[in-house]
Amino acid sequence: MQIDIGIEPDQRKQIAGGLSRVLADSYTLYLKTHNFHWNVTGPMFQTLHLMFEAQYTELALAVDLIAERVRALGFPAPGTYKQFAELSAIREDDGVPKAEDMIRRLVEGHETTARTSREVFRVAEGANDQPTCDLLTQRMQVHEKTAWMLRSLLE
After folding, report:
1. Domain contains 7
2. Has keyword Oxidoreductase (predicted)?
3. Taking the model in full, what pTM does it have?
């Protein structure tokens, strides 16, 4: 059945492609945060272990919302590590970094995801796609706040 939600097919495709990048960034950041939760050590262990758990839990819920929006626009959501690696601007880490380096890398990941979301927002806004704009606004707010909180640990 044809999708007729007031957004042209080419615009829907462009938005879904952008959301797929946001999804890939978010999932990669989820995995990185979960990895750091498992492997953090040092004097800030308890604080970081709990903080990382709250952050990866939030990301786990977010990836579902992003993927569902891609589907609502009429396109398949990426769902493999291979697809995420191709689409994400966030790179995976090798080894287990020190706690402060984990914090820095997560700040970078949240800022990267906020930038990707902001790029896609412009496309969605141009297509008058308020649901996607709303979703992206919420995601930018979460990523910017989380980056601030993590950066505060380094001062």
Report:
1. no
2. yes
3. 0.96
